[in-house]
Design brief:
With 235 residues, the protein is mostly helical. It contains 10 helices and no strands. The longest helix is centred in the N-terminal third of the chain and has 28 residues.
Length: 235
């Protein structure tokens, strides 16, 4: 889809825009992930679906493990910055997994025992790693720029199904969804304006992500706040 050397040349030619758009995206990502991690344990609920987390962790951890590509092969400051950010996101994704294992069984698999659910989560992670490995060797995305966008978009069905399943703002906050929207917007601007990714389907995915994200943020902002004393709430 792109020539990595040409993309990095465009980055160096537009440093101010890269810092602005990239700073917006990764700054908002930090807020978004922090909110998910804290709300998962505070509200005693899964912050994301298992299928989402078992996609994000293999993707981000694989980028981190390819240290030599970013610090030796390409030796570019932007990729080194991506690497540092994904070290943090990979660790936080393990926190999401811990929240799912601890609090997600009754919502996701009430028919399983806690031990059975833990084994199910472990199996799902193994499957996610294997599926990511197959995908990675069959796509032309050397800098992960395409899959970054796809993981951003993949958050939406996960958050939406959990939001619709619950009848209050449990596991969600307006700040979290606004941060998500800003993260997505920053990355869209980075890829479209700086990297010059302007294929029709890329623009469709970008537009879909922003519209869907804005709609979900609006819906979450209008839902009732989580009440831990509500009858039937799992503690």
């Amino acid at each position: 889809m792109y020539d990595p050397n040409e993309v990095l040349r465009l980055v160096d030619d537009n440093v101010a825009l890269v810092l602005a758009f990239g700073g917006l995206s990764f700054g908002a990502l930090g807020v978004y992930y922090y909110e998910m991690a804290t709300l998962g344990f505070r509200h005693r609920v899964a912050p994301l679906t298992l299928v989402a987390v078992t996609t994000f962790f293999p993707h981000d951890a694989n980028f981190v493990l390819n240290f030599e590509d970013w610090f030796s092969t390409y030796d570019h400051w932007l990729l080194k910055g991506f690497w540092a950010a994904l070290v943090v996101t990979s660790l936080l994704e393990l926190v999401f997994v811990a929240a799912i294992v601890r609090h997600g069984r009754e919502e996701m698999a009430p028919g399983l025992s806690q031990r059975g659910f833990e084994l199910y989560c472990a199996g799902a992670m193994v499957a996610g790693i294997c599926l990511w490995a197959v995908l990675k060797v069959n796509i032309d995305d050397p800098l992960y720029l395409t899959t970054f966008m796809l993981t951003i978009t993949w958050c939406l069905p996960s958050m939406t199904v959990l939001h619709l399943r619950r009848d209050e703002r449990r596991g969600f906050s307006t700040r979290q969804l606004v941060a998500y929207l800003l993260m997505a917007l920053g990355y869209v601007l980075l890829t479209v304006v700086v990297f010059e990714f302007r294929d029709v389907w890329w623009l469709v995915v970008c537009a879909l992500t922003l519209v869907w994200g804005a709609g979900l943020a609006w819906s979450v902002s209008r839902s009732p706040a989580f009440d831990p004393d509500r009858p039937g709430t799992t503690r």
